[in-house]
Amino acid sequence: MMVGMSYAAVPLYNWFCRATGFNGTTQVATSAPAEVLDRKITVRFDANVASGVPWEFAPERTTIEARLGEVVTMDYFVTNRSAKEVTAVASYNVAPLNMGAYFRKINCFCFTDQTLKPHERQALTVVFYVDPELVKDPDGADVNTITLSYTFHLAREPQLGSGAQPQKTTRLLTQD
């Protein structure tokens, strides 16, 4: 029973974080909210690559100011600086951690393998909004800045059968 519980712990924890926004886990949205409020919040964008990932990774802007409920589209740019094809995957979090419950992603490149050919450059798009429900949370009253942070880690090559191709949420820009 203990072995079974240990295998179930990670998926249950992931489900709990997605459902509650715990530990900076953002929420998924399928559409824009019904209202946009006048209250503005600063959103900071952070981009990192783990050791061993030969990529340059940066947001198009480091900060924006958005109204609660306003849908924002932001591009991050990634360039493979190596002479070989590299596949990596981005993980993310939001700070302050309790704001994950209000940060709603409509489209994101996170947790999807991204494969770049040698010296290839791509734009990776994230579409999000900060939920207007934040104004009802007493813990959100003093929050004026939220940071969205991504880190790329090397990924295992996807196991594909029958000639299937991995899905990507990217736009090809240029090749150096």
Brief summary of the model shown:
By secondary structure, the protein is mainly β.
Order of helices and strands: HEEEEEEEEEEE
CATH topology: Ctag/Cox11 (Pfam 04442)
Topology, number of strands? 11
Shape, please? elongated
| Cα-to-Cα separation, first versus last residue | 54 Å
Rg, nearest Å: 18 Å
Fourth CATH level, the homologous superfamily: Ctag/Cox11
Q: Please report which band the strand proportion falls in: under 5%, 5-15%, 15-25%, 25-35%, 35-45% or over 45%.
A: 35-45%
Class in CATH? Mainly Beta
Q: What level of helicity do the residues show?
A: 10-25%
- Which structural class is indicated by helix and strand composition? mainly beta
Structure overview:
The chain has 176 residues and is mainly beta. It has a single domain (22-157, 166-175), classed as Ctag/Cox11 (Pfam 04442) (Sandwich). It has one helix at residues 2-20, and strands spanning 27-28, 40-49, 55-59, 63-67, 72-80, 86-95, 103-107, 114-116, 120-130, 145-154, 170-175. Strands 1, 3, 5, 7, 9 and 11 form a 6-stranded mixed β-sheet that branches. The termini are far apart. The relative contact order is 0.24.
